[in-house]
Amino acid sequence: MARFALRNVNGLLSRNEWLTVGGALVLSIVAGLLTAFHVNAVITFVISGGALAILAALVGLATNQVGSRLGPGATGVLQSALGNLPELFVGFFALRAGLIPVIQAALVGSILGNSLFVLGLAFFVGGLRHGTQRFASEAPRMIATLTLLAVSALALPTLVFYLHAPAAGHEDGFSIACAVILLIVFIASIPVSLKGGPTSVP
Predict the structure, then answer these.
(1) What's the whole-number mean pLDDT along residues 3-17?
(2) Phi, psi of 111 (to 5 degrees)
(3) Residue closest to 143 by CA, chosen among 81, 178, 189
């Protein structure tokens, strides 16, 4: 029975996927041991970064596997919700350590990476493979609006602080309010995303 179950599991994952899972497990354990024994910080950082990169790839792989059964709309929601889990954990531990600049740099890097690098790369590769690409307008408009809202929520507390606005003494509460609003907007956008958007292309 155990051999049959193991054979079924082997059939579900390819060799590369097994290597990804094994690499993530090994590097995570090594990173934990290096941290526990206070080994050289540079070595610990490199190993932890490698483990984090493989874990991010593993999350993306799992999301694609689940999303292939749920359709494009649900896949997009899963990727947006789970694709940034490694960054979320990094942010959590960095906040506990008081490393605010690390969080700020990670947020800016994530926005620039997803909005410019990933989007530009998708356009470039898609153009090379399929030529002129056409998109339905409703979904990109919604994504652009959500992105603008997210950038505004990040910028407002900073502007309030540096411009010495009347709310300058309440940056923490203002930031929490912006975060709650973003979470509510994200949850409200899920039903629209699950529908997959319009199928007609102008």
Answers:
(1) 58
(2) -65, -45
(3) 189
Residue for token pair 């193991």: 6
Do the beta carbons of residue 153 and residue 179 sit within 8 Å? yes
Angstrom distance (rounded) from CA 116 to CA 98: 29
> Does the global pTM surpass 0.70?
no
Count other C-beta atoms under 10 Å from residue 27's C-beta.
Answer: 19
- What element of type H or E holds 144? helix 138-162
69 token code pair = 């059964």
Q: Which two tokens stand for residue 77?
A: 């929601």
User: 164's torsion region: left (phi>0), alpha (psi -120 to 50) or beta?
Assistant: left
pLDDT tens for 31-44 read: 889 888 888 888 98
Cα separation of the two ends of the chain: 55
Residues 129 and 147 sit within 8 Å (Cβ to Cβ): no
CA dihedral 156, 193, 143, 178 (to 10 degrees): 0
Q: How far is CA 148 from CA 18, 144, 154, 182, in A?
A: 39, 6, 10, 11
Sign of the torsion angle spanned by Cα atoms 112, 118, 122, 128: positive
Domain boundaries, the chain: 1-83
Q: What is the DSSP code string of 2-58?
A: HHHHHHHHHHHS-HHHHHHHHHHHHHHHHHHHHHHTT--HHHHHHHHHHHHHHHHHH
